[in-house]
Amino acid sequence: MIVEIDGRPSDSPFVESIYWARSVGGGSFTSIAASQWEMVITKQKGKVTLSLRGPETKASPASIPEDAEFLGIAFRHGLFMPALPVYELVNKEIHITATGKNTFELFGDKWEFPTSENAEVFINRLLRKDMLAHDQLVDDVMRGKPQDMSLRSIQRRFLHVTGLPYKTIQQIERARQALSLLQNGAPIPDTAYLLGYFDQSHFTRSLKLYAGQTPSQIIQTSGPNDAVFLQDEASS
């Protein structure tokens, strides 16, 4: 089970949040849908692994590594890897093992594993090496800025940069917002109305798909919801 979870916002315009966690024993949890990709560094029994985790389009069961420490970097929607398009990571993850005491190889270059203190420095180095790139249009659309571009062109950009259609991102983010509101005591009808769900049935189906629970089940769950783990905790 997870016994310690913490995180912080980032001053980088490309990073959504930095988070860390620790587990004791094993276990399982429900990983809720996520519209962004992330890097997760896992330390377990003297071994260190870097995982590239893509967006998740639905809630799914996942295991908790036994007696491990985690550091995660969750990225904003406009950041992507030119050499590994995010659409190839949707509902997937790639694991990169250490090649030295504290180093790993990424696209042929050797890197030190980042820490919670120097995560932004690590990201800036990847940007300077063109291993990461940023698409301002995606960020602008996510902020609601009007664009002089056809809807079809925007959709192509979103699929290339984020791996997901813009509408899917909206649905996932709305469900995550609903989950947060319900966990903080908001009534079900008020939450559904505030977030613009068509009716109660639509609201229930959405939460079941993206959070793995119905609104009633979320409210009945006591304490922190296990579905909100790793990047989900840091951004709540």
Labels describing this entry:
236 residues, globular, alpha+beta, disordered C terminus, 32% helix, two-stranded antiparallel sheet
Task: Please provide a written account of the structure.
The chain has about 240 residues and is an alpha+beta fold. It has one domain. The chain has eight helices and twelve strands. The strands form four sheets. Strands 1-2-7-4-5-9 form a six-stranded antiparallel β-sheet. The protein has a two-stranded antiparallel ribbon with strand order 3-6. The chain is globular and about 55 Å long.
Give me the secondary-structure category. Answer: alpha+beta
Number of strands: 12
Coarse shape: globular
Q: Span from first to last CA? A: 20 Å
Rg for CA atoms:
18 Å
| Major sheet summary line | 6 strands, antiparallel
* Overall residue-averaged pLDDT value: 91
- The structural domain count equals 1
The helix tally amounts to 8
As a percent range, the share of strand residues is 25-35%
Helix content: 25-40%
Spell the H/E element sequence: EEEEEEEEEEEHEHHHHHHH
Query: Which spans have pLDDT < 50 for at least 5 consecutive residues?
Result: 224-236
Main sheet strand line-up: 1-2-7-4-5-9
Topology:
Layout: E1 2-9, E2 15-23, E3 28-31, E4 38-44, E5 47-53, E6 60-63, E7 68-75, E8 79-80, E9 93-97, E10 103-106, E11 109-112, H1 119-128, E12 133-134, H2 136-142, H3 151-162, H4 166-183, H5 188-194, H6 200-211, H7 215-220, H8 231-234
Antiparallel strand pairs: 1-2, 2-7, 3-6, 4-5, 4-7, 5-9, 8-12, 10-11
